[in-house]
Amino acid sequence: MYEPNVVGDWQEYDEHAGLRVRVHRLEAAEPPRGRDDAAAGLTYFSLRVTVENRGSRSFGIHLEDGQIDVRLGPDGEAAFIDWRNSQFIEGFDVYPLRRATAVLYAAGPDACLSQVDVQIQLRVEEEWTDRRLWTGGIGLHEEPVGAHTCGTRDGGLAHQVSNFLRDQAEEGTA
Known about the structure:
5-stranded mixed sheet; DUF4352 domain-containing protein; 1 helix
C-alpha cells in the first residue's frame, strides 16, 4: 500500500540514482508581491519543494505550474495557488551535492489548513517521475470552529497525530 510522506520527509527516486525531493516549511505567510484579489477572505501559506542531487552526475529538472497540486481538508478541495508570487524550478541543472528549491504561495479557508496534501510530479531530463504525496498541516486551528469547517470531527490532523504518538509511547512503556 502506498503511504504519503510527512511534510519534511525526503523521497528518493529509484530511477534517478541520488536524486531526492521533499516538501518542507509549510507555514502561514503573506506573499511578497501582495495578495491576489481572487484570494479575498482566504488565508495565505507557503511551502518549499527542494530537489537535491546526492548522485555522481547532474540532472536537468523542471518543477513548474501544473506539476504541484495542493489540496486542503478531508475532502481534498483545491487550494488557490498564487502563481504570480510563486517561484518555480524551470530547466535547471542540479549538479552533484547541490540543491534547487521552489517556493509556492497558496491560500485556503482557515478551517481547512490543518490538513494540507501536496502532490509533486517532477520532470527529470524530459522524463516524468511518478507522483509523490506529502501531508501536513499549518495548525491555525487545533479544533474545528464554526458550522462550516474542513477539520475532521475528531480534532483534525494535528489531534490525530498527537493521539497516535501518545498511543505508541504508551505501548513502549508497558
